[in-house]
Structures are given as C-alpha cells and as structure tokens.
Amino acid sequence: MMTTNLAFLSNELMDVVRLFEGAEALSIEHAVAYKEDVFHNQFTVEGKTYCFSDYAPAPSQLAYKSLCKRYAKLSLYKILSERFEKRLPWGALTGIRPTRLAYAELEHGMPFEPLLADMGVSEENLSLLTRVIEGQKGIYEKKEGNCDLFVSLPFCPTKCVYCSFITAPISATRKYLDDYLTALEKELSALPPIRNLRSVYVGGGTPFALTEGELERVLKAISAVRKNDCEFTVEAGRPDVFTEEKLRLCKGYGVTRICINAQSFSNKTLERIGRKHTAEQVEEAFEMAKPYGFSINCDLIAGLTDESVEEFCNSVDKAISLHPQNITVHTLCLKKGARLKEEVSSLSGDMLGEMIAYSRKRLTEAGYEPYYLYRQKYMAGAHENVGWTKKGYASVYNVDIMEEIADNLAVGGNAVSKKVFLGEGRIERIGSPKDIPTYIEKVDALIKEKQSLFK
Ligand SMILES: C[S@@+](CC[C@H](N)C(=O)[O-])C[C@H]1O[C@@H](n2cnc3c(N)ncnc32)[C@H](O)[C@@H]1O
Ligand code: SF4
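A: This is the predicted complex of the input protein with S-adenosylmethionine.
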C-alpha cells in the first residue's frame, strides 16, 4: 500500500515500487514539502522513517513538478534499493525513453552523465546512452513538418505465448479483413498532405500473414501516398509465412527494409513460446530474401521462459552469422495481456544481466552500434530494448518514433497518430480503436479527426 500527499506523484512512485519484486506488499507512506528551494521527502516504510533533503530551485511550476517527481522517486529508490539489496541498471529511472532526458540536458548545454548518474543509472548504461546518441547522428532531426507513416496490420498467423501486442490469429479475424483493407485504403487516400515523409512502416502484427493479393492492396494504397523515396519497412515478421511472391511484391512497391524475426534460435524455446516455426526456417527466410537486397532486421528476446544464458548467447551468435543490417535485442516484458505473466519467467536478474552484457559485447565486436533504445513497464530485470545497426543502416522510423521528434500519421486499427509541436514541447495524439470491427465502423470519424489535427 502506497500513499502520498501529492496526487500527481502517486503513479510515479508506484512505478518505482514495481521495480522491486515484493515491494508492492509493503506499507509505504510519503509526504513532501518544498521550502526555500529545498525538497523534503519523508517516507515511512513498514514503520521505519527516512528523510531526504535536496536543494533544487524551481523557476516555474513545470520545473517544480519535474524536480518534485525526480527527488521523490530517487529517495524511494534509495530506500528500496537498500532494503532489497539490489541496484538496478537504470536506477530510479522509470520512463520509456532515457535518451530524451539525456537530450534535454544536452540541449541546455550540459553533459547528461551527472544527472543520470545521480539517478542511479549504471556506468554501462551511461556509456550505452552515449553510443546511442552518437548512433543517431545524421538521423536525429528536430524539424517542423517531418513526418513518418505507420500502417497497422494487426493480423498474425497464430498468437505467440509471450506477446502482448493487440493482435489475433488471422483465422479468427479473416472475416473482417476485406472491410479492414477497404477502411485502410480510405484512410490512406484521405491523408492530409505530408510535407516531408521520412519513412513508412507497415507493422502490427505480421504483415506477411496476409495473402499476396491482400498485401498488394496495402502496398498499392501506400504507393499512392509515398510521393518521395524514403525508408520503407515491412515488418514481414514470422518466417513461416514468407513466400517468394510476397518478397517480390515488396521489392516492386519500393520496400527497402524487412524484418525476419527469430526471437530465439533454439527450437526448444521456439516451441515453448508458440512461434510455430523453427530456427532453420528463419535461416531459409534469410536465404529467400537475399536476392532482393533489402536491409534486414532480426528481433531477439532475452529472458524467454526457461531459456539458459547459453541458449540466448547462441541466438545472438546465430543472428550475427546471418549478417542482418539490424538486430534488435528486446528484454522480455511481462505485460498484463501475455500468458507468460502467469507462467512467470524462471530467470533471475543476474542471468538477464549476463545475457544483455553478452549481446552488447558480441554485437559491438561484430561491428554493430546501438542506435535506439526504449524501456517498458514490467520489463524483466528492469532492463531495456536496444536496436543495433551496421554502419549506415540505422532505421529513421525507429529513431523518430522513439525520440518523438517527428509527426506520426498512423492508419489502421490500434494505431496512434502523433502531432509533435516542437516549439511548445507538447504532443497531441489520436488513438484509433483497438478492436477491428469498431475501427472499421469509426473510420470516417477518424479520418476527419486526423485531417483536423494535421491540417
Ligand atoms: C509487434 S511485434 C511484431 C513482430 C512480428 N509479428 C513477429 O512476431 O515476428 C515486434 C517485436 O516485439 C517483440 N515483443 C513482442 N512481445 C514482447 C514481449 N512480451 N517482451 C519482449 N519483446 C516482445 C518481439 O521481438 C517482436 O518481434
Ligand atoms: S510476436 Fe509477432 S507473430 Fe507473435 S503474436 Fe506478437 S505480433 Fe503476432
């Protein structure tokens, strides 16, 4: 049970509590006062009281709120860290985008390391952040009018056990597919004019779960909007739905980048997580895609249930040996929707730490650089997801979406469009219905809403 005297801190402090397994059961009382530029945080945890005083002048209400959150979270993190005898890789940081904090410091002409080190971020992660920021050079661009296009296809061959994305097996949703594609075509043809289209991303879901004819409808509708050449990704996805014809269609419609996701190269793991394909099929999909010359991304997940450190390390080695331009290393995220939450990953934080350290070392040795990173709630071991790239192949879409520096026009069900007001430092969002029939029904209203926001 957690109580605080400032309502806006409640969720923030709960995020810190959730970082420590077992902390949710503790009784925690909190009170904060701000006097003469000093934040006084007092916590009582299971009857024991802790006091912290931090000098931090706040020139505005916005700054006050941000500093208030920072010191309250940091104080609670210190208490719990001591109580559970555990230091976390990102310390008291609970946000999705640690890079944004780093960029904010840099924009104020200050190095970001001191602030993040104060928040308890490990040396290794400070250096990772430095490399990510370096990796984004040439792509990271804050310019009004920059825009990316996202096309959502929430259809999958089957549902993977760990996955919490809002997608369903296509066998259950095929009855809506024709109407869904009609709604998508309508949205795409009614898009407000895009001044500077930086990239297109077709994801979901598993776009290759569609038949060739269905996929072509989507690609054709996109090509009518894509006036300038730009990065064009299709998250083809699972190798069990790859065909020559789908690859040929992608090439013909100007796709530049595809994803062939393994998650793991252990057949035992793949079976356990319900992927319904083998490691050999991943290799075959790489072979099949080779003649088309796409830039390829391969997703891996660290922390999959019952996977050993050795199995994960083998997967990293195997992915590297296939020479994709990008490898994305996710950490298992135990979201509410995933069945795995009940199955509970058998991995300890230390095993995960070993896996992540190995992936960083091996990918670096193999010539990959980290270029984007993000975190989610309920991530095993409070780690992160990192996108790695060979030089010159960093994905514009991933940088823009993670750093939230460009507009995102997102079409389809369960897609969030974002209008970024750079000057005002704010973002307006329009989320479309997650449920497919509701999206189809509401598409006309959605079109109007987006036209008005992006006019
Ligand atoms: C939207 S999914 C689409 C990928 C594609 N359908 C496939 O399965 O190959 C993008 C990626 O998120 C990652 N992912 C999904 N659920 C996850 C979870 N619970 N924890 C960590 N990563 C997850 C997987 O690596 C997956 O490839
Ligand atoms: S991991 Fe990919 S294929 Fe599996 S359910 Fe999630 S989106 Fe679908």
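The chain has a mean pLDDT of 94. Residues 1-86 form a domain with the Double Stranded RNA Binding Domain fold (CATH 3.30.160).
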